[in-house]
Fold this sequence. Notes:
The protein has 102 residues and is mostly helical. The protein folds into 2 domains: 2-71, no CATH class; 73-102, no CATH class. The protein has helices at 2-27, 41-69, 80-87, 92-101.
Amino acid sequence: MTxxxxxxxxxxxxxxxxxxxxxxAEKMGYTLDATGDSAPKEAQLLAYRAAExxxxxxxxxxxxxxxxxxxxxxxxxxxxxxxxxxxxxPDADEDREVKDKV
Length: 102
């Protein structure tokens, strides 16, 4: 999943960067060569800024998805019995011994 997320994120932010760089260069009156290296520094800065905002948006979306889908997961490997015992406090060991004897 990490490789898939990285490849999609890198591809999309590269598309954002290229489109903003081309648009800003044309707006400033420059024509770019095939490699796009002839863009002015101001256009490149705006393109980097747009790409970083895209990466920030991916982070926010990932956080919201984690909150939505992992909300009720609980402790990994724990059962509901274990959770109930820990809620009783320091006397939980005594209650456990009594229940085991019965």
